[in-house]
Amino acid sequence: MSTSEASTPASADRSLRGLLLLLATIAGVAVANIYYNQPLLDNLRLSFPNSASWVGAVPAVTQLGYAAGMLLLAPLGDRFDRRRLILLQIAGMCLALVLASAAPTLSVLIVASLAIGVLATIAQQAVPFAAELAPASERGHAVGTVMSGLLLGILLARTAAGFVAEYFGWRAVFGASVVALLVLAVVIIMRLPKSKPTSTLPYGKLLVSMWHLVVEHRALREASLTGAAMFAAFSIFWSVLALLLAGAPFHLGPQAAGLFGIVGAAGAMAAPLAGKFSDRRGPHAIITVSIVLVAISFVVFALSAKSIAGLVIGVIILDVGVQAAQISNQSRIYALKPEARSRVNTVYMVAYFIGGAVGSGVGAVVWPTFGWIGVSVAGVGFAGLAAWNHLGLPARVRS
């Protein structure tokens, strides 16, 4: 065997690893844009004092936009070249970020945030792209690699935004994201291959087929509502945290709120363990445990309105619970109809981010009136909704 022949498999492996790393970076950089605004809420309140009571709408509409983008844009990956879709969405998001950075009023920022949310669904093109590029024997590892990038983007976005805002102002956060996306676009043009469409269905029929999946699979409906309630609990905490830390007794800026994202890395560490446990015992048990953990985290939060240590402990419990439930729910839905995994995933993720938008919206209403205790009670309420939905169904849909 010649040297060139012997090196071919190793070269192919290195090439695939490089592509997966690129896709993981795409997913992380893209999804981070829907979380940058959460540690900036106190800065926004100060910048727009006449609209201060509406600053909570910024993270709410961003997540609502992401849900809309999931529904309207993510299914296109089955119909068109994903590489082109990713580049087009990057171009659109750069424009939306420039508008956010220069927003003269909170209303303009809200509109820009909605557009950012819609276009950040680039992340949902990266995951199925990884499954297409990898051989069947390595597909799970490939998807897991890209999901790790997405998770890190979620966790570190607040940290990065808090740091930049602390030293350069909140508008610089959106400007820095534009620079990162433009650099990423150049790498995509140079390195990422084109994808092969797998469907010839017209756009309208692609969307209609997702409704048929909802009607057909009760387990998909249950997993979607459970996931939505869990993410609502997650979002109500993160959308209000910066406001809590800005007041007495903490008087901390956005950098401190962002640093809590590093604490959330516990969720990333729990994800592989949750997957292994789900494989051995089935996802139902670990989702049940996850719901209990989320409820406990908000009890800890309620007792920690003046304690950084208590908040840190609560964040760890919250992120472990939410991420473990997410992995287990995805394990359930991907087994329902393998030939329609992209559309099944779209149904689930649309519900998931609608839940996030509801959580942020409830936080914006509850915080001014009922304060931190009200936020904590609402978080327990969302966990209770997840428990009612998850545990109240017949065993035949528990898989």
UniProtKB/TrEMBL annotation:
Keywords: Membrane, Transmembrane, Transmembrane helix. The chain crosses the membrane at residues 18-36, 51-73, 85-103, 109-130, 142-161, 167-189, 228-250, 256-273, 285-302, 308-325, 346-366, 372-391. Residues 16-399 form the Major facilitator superfamily (MFS) profile domain. It holds the Pfam family MFS_1. Gene3D superfamilies: MFS general substrate transporter like domains (1.20.1250.20). CDD domains: MFS_NepI_like. One of its GO terms (molecular function) is transmembrane transporter activity. The keyword Transmembrane applies. Coiled coil: none annotated. The keyword Cytoplasm does not apply. PANTHER family: MAJOR FACILITATOR SUPERFAMILY (MFS) PROFILE DOMAIN-CONTAINING PROTEIN, TRANSPORTER SCO4007-RELATED. This is MFS transporter.
